[in-house]
Amino acid sequence: MTSHDLRNQLESLTTEAFRPELAEIDRLPTLDIARLMNGEDAGVPAAVAARLPQIAAAIDAVAERMARGGRLVYAGAGTAGRLGVLDASECPPTFNTEPGQVAGLIAGGPEAMVTSVEGAEDSAELAREDLDALKIGPEDTVVGISASGRTPYAVGAVEHARAVGALTVGLSCNEHSALAAAAEHGIEVVVGPELLTGSTRLKAGTAQKLVLNMLSTITMIRLGKTYGNLMVDVRASNAKLRARSRRIVSLATGAPDEEIERALTEAGGEVKNAILIVLAGVDGPTAARRLADSAGHLRAALGATTT
For the whole prediction, is pTM greater than 0.70? Predict the structure, then answer.
């Protein structure tokens, strides 16, 4: 593609549109610019809301595959790639996911998290290589992320994943995008032109973050990683999370502190097991067995204690 062709393509994208009414924004008082930005951001949730049916359908499909042992892999370049890596990196401490169960790929590798890697986003072949390194297969899901919906790395990742039988989701911020067309589940959150022309780390980035929050969080709810709105699969890897674990057991059971400490000790620090020990009056091994029989769903394991 020539530079002229690329320029014409970018000029056709909503996310790249120029807004003449903001041409002198740099001459405004700081508070006025902040108000403009805040007003722009206020429209993002409505744009996400317009795509909730597509988001929900994608989540159900992802959860179904992950329940069979599949992985969730995000793939993107630049800001989109960083958002995917961020969402993936927060799943282990929040939901106690296994290493690699949720992963983020960014064009150019880890170096690209903090600096631009020249040409990486333009390589569909690089996306194929990155996915092949993970041995992506039919039980896995690949989510391509691209504000423009045309980034070769993201589109290439989705096309290759689909070719090997993986579930595919394409998340973009332009209608009729190549990314959505390539994926089984296309999610196009159209937030309109940016305050700064083409700076898609702004509204488009916010929209992508909101959708990724939903994809991972609701998938984990479907997989039994929560009990009500409590993060019962939290991994207590530091003092704050250990305190949170105690609080979660307290909220779920209403038990006194001494009983909570005994249950957590019996459960080896596992919050779900501790809750089951308290509410069902069982010992640690029994709690572990009932959770295993219930595929890790605490509510199901609690129901099994009454039968």
Answer: yes
The catalytic position among 24, 64, 118, 121 is 121
Distance of CA 145 to CAs 91, 125, 284, Å?
18, 16, 42
Which helix (H) or strand (E) is 111 found in, with range? none
Q: Give catalytic status of residue 21 as yes or no.
A: no
Amino acid sitting at position 236: A
Q: Is 101 helix (H, G, I), strand (E, B) or coil?
A: coil
Residue 193, both tokens: 């032109």
Q: Reduced to 3 states, what is the DSSP secondary structure of residue 37?
A: helix
Which is the catalytic residue, given 11, 21, 24, 90?
A: 90
Does residue 90 have an active-site annotation?
yes
Q: Which of 41-45, 73-77, 110-114, 277-281 has the lowest mean pLDDT?
A: 110-114
154-186 as b/e, with b when 16 or more CB fall inside 10 Å?
bbbbbbbbbeeebbbbbbbbbeebbbbebbbbb
Of 53, 49, 103, 48, which is closest to residue 76 (Cα–Cα)?
103
**What SS3 state is found at 143?**
strand
Give the whole-angstrom CA distance, residue 108 versus residue 110: 7
Beta strands across the sheet bearing 167-172:
102-106, 72-76, 141-145, 167-172, 185-188
